[in-house]
Amino acid sequence: MKANGDSRAVLKVRGLHVHYGASHALQGVNIELSEGVHSVLGRNGMGKTTLCNAVMGLVPASSGSVRFEGQELIGKSSHQIAKLGVGYTPQRRRLWPSLTVDEHLRLCAVRGSPWTPERIYDSFPRLAERKSNGGAQLSGGEQQMLAISRALLPNPRLLVMDEPTEGLAPVIVDQVVDMLGRIAGESDVAILLVEQNIAVATAVAQDCAIMVNGRISTVINAKQLSADRALQQRLLGVGRQDEAAALPPRSGTGEDTQTSFEAPPAKQAPEADAPKVPQGRWRYVPPKRWTKDHWANGAPSDSAPLAAAALPRQENLGHDILVVGTFDTKATELGFIRDRILAQGLSVKTVDLSTSGKPSSADIPPHHIAIWHPSGASSVFTGDRGSAVAGMQTAFERWTSQATGIAGMISACGSGGTALVSPAMRALPLGVPKMLISTVASGEVSQYVGPSDMMMMYSVTDIQGINKISSKILANGADALAGAVKFTRENAPIIPAGKPALGLTMFGVTTPAVQGVMKLLEPTHECLVFHATGVGGRSMEKLADNGLLAGALDLTTTEIADFVCGGVFSADEDRFGAFIRNPMPYVGSVGAVDMCNFGAPETVPERYAGRHLYPHNPQVTIMRTTAEENTKIGTFIASRVNEMPGPVRYLLPLKGVSAMDDEGRPFHDPKATGALFDAIRHTFKPSDTHHLIELDCHINDPAFATAAVDAFHEISGHHQGARHA
After folding, report:
1. What are the strands, taking DSSP E only, across 507-585?
2. Rounded to the nearest 5 degrees, what angle is found at the Cα of 710, between the Cα atoms of 705 and 711?
3. How far is it, in rounded angstroms, from Cα 431 to Cα 409?
4. In 385-493, which residue ranges form alpha helices assigned H by DSSP?
5. With contact defined as beta carbons under 8 Å apart, do 614 and 550 qualify?
6. For 227-244, what is each residue's pLDDT tens digit?
7. CA–CA distance, 551 with 62 (Å, rounded to integer)
8. Would you say 633 and 679 are in contact if contact means Cβ atoms under 8 Å apart?
9. Residue 676 is inside which H or E element, if any?
């Protein structure tokens, strides 16, 4: 990436301006790329994706020039640009859900290209294992591998990559980084890499361009940026939240009986001491409830905002059921659902999420939702379907997060609509009924449901007209939602509100430890136990972000082992983030990090051939983690715990971390477990509020449960004898 002109440049961008309506997204961008990998870094909303889309002809330029090997790209269509030799891996991958991996590759293969499907399988063995699986049946890492492979098959001279490592486990990130290095080193492909992961961007690139507010502010040597944390902070503001717009809080008072659909508030200045987020990433962080100063002098006495653990009470229930979707294409089906619910005497409002610009018959038309986009409605109605749908998704999620009086939400849609609606459904509080009738509900749905209590129903036929099949399915979905709303109104909450709620994490191999803790805490606390299967940890943290937990005993962090090793029960990079954003008493430990989880034996990746495997049951195979992997696990856990502003007690059971690693058991490996403890000792930063406690016992010994409860009572302000009350 160079500042001066170079006739040999593969990509030369000069004075590029892009507008979305009145929003000035790119403001005179200048970039020059000759060879190798060059990264563009910047926080969310700075214009990075718009730059990629402008290069690919997906958004029109207001002015300026984009030249590829001397040819002007402005004014050319996307397929013309691709034929010239420009490949693109877009954010969110955009795979065909109905095509298999092999069909994707065969469809995109070009005769005479050095990149063939066979070479792709050699480069990404995991794709070879999944070649018969559809695009919608792949994990996030597998989808990203396929998206990269699809772009490589035509043998591009320039490869534009937008966030290729977003949301991937570390082991998959390592593979992608290795792949990028090999592509750049073994071919003449130049790569323009847009990334938020600083470690990735600086590891593979020669230079990094810093994008701020639609402009390239600095071009700097990647090694220099990687080695200088202070420089990262100055150029990128790593760990700050000063770009996030504050959203109005949900009232939660129960006084409103009508749904509130107000316009978005003006942008507010951020808090000066906004909580940190994982190094090298920027994300929206919900407002915190207690500052670090509150905990410096002990637990707050008026901790009511954190103590309540009830689902929505009868007096807090909303008034309106929302029927949402794209009314320009699904008005008949959504109208059928509306009428079915109205016939049961319930109040309904329709919400149109269309981006076509057609007139709307819904109670809440699209432009009322679009104004909730952080950059305004112009970022929704772009004229490009992909960016428009992504913009509407963001706007609707933000709109839902602030709306009050929602009694339930239902939609019927295809794959695109499912991706559009599901984030907003996840944003609704737990206990608010939510139903998504979808064409993709019979496959892997974790990416849509996440940690929420959303119901998904398979549509059987496509959402296209009312017939003898679709009428039954849509009626069942509408009746199910209506029944849930009625039952919730007519019955008391399942969970009482009298006791403060605690989040506990458990796995089968740490059951004795958690049961022991529950027995000691149940007289004074409501113990909510989460199965640590990837989504379990996220579910617990969703409650913490919603202010429904008074503390956590996060004793089973096995999801981090899967995150590091690429297992099926993986956490994401935001694990522990809720406790960083929402200071509260936190007691943690390393339960079951001696294992990584896979499916049936034949699903274990080939790279783990020869490893110590154990058949937990016919559908679950567990793999013993090594000393090297445990070092990564311990370092990740301790570094995240260090960021928690609330009081922390972290427990190390020195005689074992699961039922599998006790002496005489299959996973007993003192060297590997010792590496875990050493990594935590080395990384953990003790303070007045953060203590590391080493226990001469196994995690499933009664002594461990007693120590965990005593540690919680110490930092939560409760008398230690309260557990005997």
Report:
1. 526-531, 551-554
2. 100
3. 12
4. 385-402, 415-427, 446-449, 470-490
5. no
6. 777 777 777 754 333 333
7. 52
8. yes
9. helix 670-683
Bridge partners (DSSP) of residue 501 are: 526
- Distance, CA of 355 to CA of 420 (rounded, Å): 11
Distances (CA, A) of 668 to 97, 109, 483, 595, 635: 42, 48, 51, 11, 21
Report CA torsion sign: 670, 672, 673, 677. positive
Rounded Cα distance between 134 and 458, Å, is 17
For residue 146, the model assigns a pLDDT of 84
Placement of tokens 């999620």 in the chain: 397
Is 540 in contact with 574 (CB distance < 8 Å)?
no
Query: What stretch of H or E contains 672?
Result: helix 670-683
**Can you tell me whether residue 113 is helix, strand or coil?**
coil
Which residue, 197, 221, 192, 199, is CA-closest to 208?
A: 221
585: Cβ–Cβ under 8 A, 6 or more apart, which residues?
Answer: 299, 550, 551, 552, 646, 647, 712, 715, 716
| Pair 441, 460: CB distance under 8 Å | no
Taking CA atoms, 234 is separated from 47, 225, 276, in Å, by 19, 11, 15
Q: Which of 82, 83, 84, 64 lies closest to 74 in space, CA to CA?
A: 64
Amino acid at 601: P
Contacts 24+ apart (CB under 8 A), 107-110: 108/150, 108/153, 108/154, 109/153, 110/153, 110/154, 110/155
- Which residues, 6+ apart, have CB-to-CB distance to 546 below 8 Å? 429, 430
At residue 143, the pLDDT reads: 79
In sequence order, the β-bridge partners of residue 156 are: none
Q: Answer whether 677's CB lies under 8 Å from 488's CB.
A: no
Count Cβ atoms below 10 Å from residue 689 Cβ, excluding itself.
Answer: 17
For residue 608 the two structure tokens come to 């783990």
Instruction: Write out the two tokens for 5.
Output: 């002109």
Confidence category of residue 475, pLDDT binned at 50, 70, 90: very high
Facing residues of 412 across strands?
437
Q: Which amino acid would we find at residue 575?
A: R
Cβ contact 517:565 at 8 Å = no
Q: DSSP assignment, residue 270?
A: P
**Cα dihedral across residues 590, 596, 598, 600: positive or negative:** negative
This prediction's pTM: 0.56
**Mean per-residue pLDDT for 563-592?**
94
- Closest by CA to 592, choosing from 673, 474, 475, is 673
Q: How many whole angstroms separate alpha carbon 290 and alpha carbon 635? A: 27
Nearest residue to 478 (alpha-carbon basis) of 340, 319, 682, 595: 340
Edge-to-edge strands, sheet with 501-506 = 526-531, 501-506, 551-554, 586-588, 648-653, 690-695
In the chain, the N- to C-terminal Cα span, in Å, equals: 68
Q: How many helices (H) and strands (E) does the chain have?
A: 25, 24
**Could you tell me the CA-to-CA distances from 27 to 212, 249, 297 in Å, in that order?**
10, 33, 48
429 φ/ψ angles, rounded to the nearest 5 degrees: -60, 150
Residue 8 bridge partners (DSSP): none
Distance CA 27, CA 15 (A): 8
Q: What is the pLDDT of residue 669?
A: 95
Tokens of 234: 């100055």
